[in-house]
Design goal:
Length: about 375
């Protein structure tokens, strides 16, 4: 069955109503007017009129009477037919809209699984699909909110439990204070501080509240500064830090502060999970598009399993098998990095193999 647009259906319904009304008027008038006129002539003959000339006034009056009677009946039947068809057309069009209203109220009452069925009217079918996509998005947001609350509760519980345990033992006199103990307490409170700071940063990034100050700047100086900063933090038996960048490196159009934040998050992640080997900072121009510059942080660390790789940028993500023995991260750094890259119009990708290492790379626009 062919699907007609809503505008076509409305036009056809009004045209049909008009056509039925006019047709009813013409048909009834054509059928009834001659009969009524003949009856009028018979009445005139019974009154003794034998010529048309002498009966002209009565003939005209009789025809007008017949026509008026026919018109009245035509209007009655035409209006009835037009009203009935208009009512059916309106009901057919309003039925999916009433269904949409009902589903909307159901969704507003908290049933996020309510969906609109398909419609044979293309515009209403598109509206139903858009509504279902919105409902899917709301349901996904609700799932993410619940997951976030669960993950956040889990992340807060560990340091709070440690701090409370030490404080209770100190208060009850079971242990004595020492620099080592106070250092542990400071470490846990700093962990809480980092967690709340990262959560605030991620919340602003996902809501679009972070200011992005795009400008032209030289990325080479930033990469060299980053290499020097992290090289001073690495131990002698730790991984070697290498910088590999095209020379000369084109200037980029991005936010210097946010770009540095992305690099610090990626570098911190690489240092945390790489005990030995190398961490390489790479930068090169995309020879295909020629409009993007790619920056990569590659390490020879523990790597990421294929089943965990799709979830690497999710909040609080951790692969238990490969990373449970490491600590110190909040599990939000990569989610922040992805959002900051997206806010600057770039893309971030990751490749990794277990026990071989990982490479995170993101693109920045080259200044024109």
């Amino acid at each position: 069955m062919a699907k007609f647009s809503l505008s076509t259906r409305l036009f056809l319904s009004h045209f049909l109503v008009m056509l039925v009304g006019l047709s009813s008027f013409v048909v009834l008038a054509k059928l009834s007017s001659p009969r009524m006129f003949v009856l009028r002539l018979e009445q005139l003959e019974n009154q003794g009129f034998i010529t048309v000339r002498s009966a002209r006034t009565y003939l005209v009056k009789g025809f007008e009477t017949a026509w008026n009677s026919s018109a009245i009946w035509a209007v009655i039947f035409g209006a009835s037919a037009a009203g009935g068809l208009s009512f059916l057309a309106a009901e057919r069009i309003m039925k999916p809209l009433d269904r949409l209203k009902s589903v909307t109220q159901t969704l507003a009452n908290g049933d996020l699984q309510a969906r609109m069925p398909e419609s044979e009217i293309p515009e209403l079918d598109q509206l139903a699909k858009s509504f279902n996509r919105m409902a899917d998005s709301l349901e996904n947001v609700e799932h993410q909110r619940r997951d976030l609350m669960s993950d956040l509760t889990h992340e807060l519980r560990s340091p709070l439990t440690v701090v409370r345990g030490y404080l209770e033992e100190l208060a009850e006199g079971r242990i004595e204070g020492s620099p080592e103990l106070y250092g542990r307490l400071v470490q846990e409170t700093r962990r809480l501080e980092r967690l709340t700071s990262d959560l605030q940063e991620l919340s602003k990034a996902e809501a679009g509240y972070l200011s992005i100050n795009l400008q032209t700047f030289d990325l080479s100086a930033l990469l060299e500064n980053l290499r020097q900063r992290f090289a001073d933090q690495l131990l002698e038996d730790g991984p070697r830090l290498i910088l590999e960048a095209d020379s000369p490196l084109p200037t980029v159009y991005a936010d210097p502060d946010r770009t540095e934040q992305i690099l610090v998050n990626l570098m911190g992640n690489a240092v945390r999970y790489t005990e030995a080997g190398t961490i390489t900072i790479k930068a090169w121009r995309d020879l295909q598009t020629k409009n993007d510059l790619w920056v990569a942080i590659a390490d020879t660390g523990i790597g990421i399993s294929p089943e965990d790789l799709p979830h690497i940028f999710e909040r609080f993500w951790r692969a238990d098998k490969s990373r449970s023995r490491y600590s110190g991260g909040t599990g939000i750094g990569l989610a922040i990095a992805r959002r900051l890259v997206e806010l600057q119009g770039g893309k971030i990708l990751v490749t990794s193999e277990l026990a071989q290492g990982s490479e995170f790379r993101f693109s920045l626009a080259i200044a024109r």
